[in-house]
Amino acid sequence: MTFTFRPVDPVKDAQLLHTWVTHPKAAFWMMQDAKPEDVERAYTEITADEHHDALLGLAEDGTPAFLMERYDPAHRELAGLYEARPGDIGMHFLVPATDTPVHGFTRSVITAVMFHLFEDPSVRRIVVEPDIRNTAVHALNAAVGFVAEREIDKPEKRALLSFCTREQFEKAVTA
């Protein structure tokens, strides 16, 4: 599967993102009770933040297929919780719930996200911090080369801090 990326437009995309982030299967996104205006406000803040941005992954026909956020972990999300290195970038992704799941789709999404992030030559390592209870994403992360380092306490959750270098990713996707 081939995907393209475009920046989230908080006004235009708020209703779509609202349906995605409030779905019960998106519980780990922690926006279950958000109203459409809450989602618009949250993504307006993200797009205005020099250390955080949000992108929609688009299917080949241009249809929004998933959400990706990237952030500077030295300034957002993980600031003060680990020793950030030059070239670190943080990432979140969300594949919306569907009534007709496609086998391998989510794996294709995380692989595309990783390729997209590593297209930037300054990115040396991708950092993630999913909820420790999110075993499905832990398995996906491991499949694309992430190595769990340790559990950390964030204000909103207990998280599994994991890292993936360009070399680990390349080895995982060519194995």
Q: What's the rounded overall pLDDT mean?
A: 93
Distance, first to last CA: 18 Å
Q: How large a portion of the residues is in β-strands, by DSSP E?
A: 25-35%
Low-confidence segments, ≥5 residues, pLDDT <50? none
Principal-axis shape equals globular
Question: How do the helices and strands follow one another from N- to C-terminus?
Answer: EHHEEEHEHEEH
Number of strands: 7
Largest sheet: 7 strands, mixed
Helices, by number, come to: 5
List keywords for this structure.
175 residues, alpha+beta, 5 helices, globular
Folded structure, characterized:
The structure is a single chain. With 175 residues, this protein is an alpha+beta fold. The protein contains 5 helices and 7 strands, in the order βααβββαβαββα. α1 packs across α2. The longest helix has 14 residues. The chain is globular and about 35 Å long. It starts with a strand and ends with a helix.
Task: List the SSEs and their pairings.
Layout: E1 4-7, H1 10-21, H2 36-48, E2 52-58, E3 64-71, E4 88-94, H3 105-118, E5 125-128, H4 135-143, E6 147-154, E7 157-165, H5 166-174
Parallel strand pairs: 4-5
Antiparallel strand pairs: 1-2, 2-3, 3-4, 5-7, 6-7
Summarize the structure.
This protein is an alpha+beta fold. 33% of the residues lie in helices and 27% in strands.
